[in-house]
Amino acid sequence: MQQSQILIVEDEENLANTIALNLQLDNYKILISKRGNDALTLFKNNSNSINLVLLDVMLPEINGFDLCKEFKLINPTIPIIFLTAKNQISDKIEGLKLGADDYITKPFDLEELLLRVSNLIKRTQKDVSSTITFNNCEINFETFEIKDITGSTSTLSKREIGLLKLLTENANKVISRDEIIEKLWDIEENASSRTIDNYILNFRKYFESNPKLPNHFHSIRGVGYKFTS
């Protein structure tokens, strides 16, 4: 079973490290950020692999409420738990209105936090694995449906979805033409680089604001292709 990855955004270093250690003992992969700008960059670069965010409210540079808004714009399905000393009911209501799944006030019981994390990831894992969201676009690997950059929906072929899944599951890594052909085509089909190039051009039309200057679907000359979120 694939490890779930959790982003901890917490400026109290000792608390962040304690939470991280206990989550790692429960077999989670961890990213930690102590500042708002760094957290936003980390999230943008890893939005397809992060399964849950633990988010403080009072942070340097960008507060947790504003970060929550930004995270939800990038990936509306991401589960978020606020961990904060702001214990007023009005603060809790604001956090939940922003789309957070839970709001835990400090000090909290570590065992309870671990249980809430486990339950939330189990509840949302299916959605995370079957659908990815980036740049206000969406790909559903179960239904083969996409929402493109204009907000329009359409259904792709099995091979197109297969190529999208291969690229997005290996975000930021270059996938060679030979590997793509080996995994998606039968030997007798005699697939060529030109065929893959045409798929990539179509993906750019679907998902890029400017297909001629792609931010997500890249061709690496002489090597292969890469997806970045």
CATH H-level homologous superfamily name of the largest domain: Response regulator
What is the CATH T-level topology of the largest domain?
Rossmann fold
Overall geometry comes to elongated
The H/E string reads: EHEHEHEHEHEEEEHEHHEE
Helix content: 40-55%
The CATH C-level name of the largest domain is: Alpha Beta
Low-confidence spans: none
Amino-to-carboxy terminus distance: 23 Å
Total helical segments: 8
CATH architecture of the largest domain: 3-Layer(aba) Sandwich
- The helix/strand class is alpha/beta
- Largest pleated sheet: 5 strands, parallel
Q: Kindly report the spatial arrangement of strands forming the biggest sheet.
A: 2-1-3-4-5
Work out the strand percent: 15-25%
What is the count of structural domains? 2
Average residue-wise pLDDT: 91
How many beta-strand elements? 12
Radius of gyration: 20 Å
Write the topology of this structure.
Layout: E1 5-9, H1 13-25, E2 29-33, H2 36-46, E3 52-55, H3 64-74, E4 80-84, H4 89-97, E5 102-105, H5 110-130, E6 131-134, E7 137-140, E8 145-147, E9 153-155, H6 158-169, E10 174-176, H7 177-184, H8 193-207, E11 217-220, E12 224-227
Parallel strand pairs: 1-2, 1-3, 3-4, 4-5
Antiparallel strand pairs: 6-7, 7-8, 8-9, 10-12, 11-12
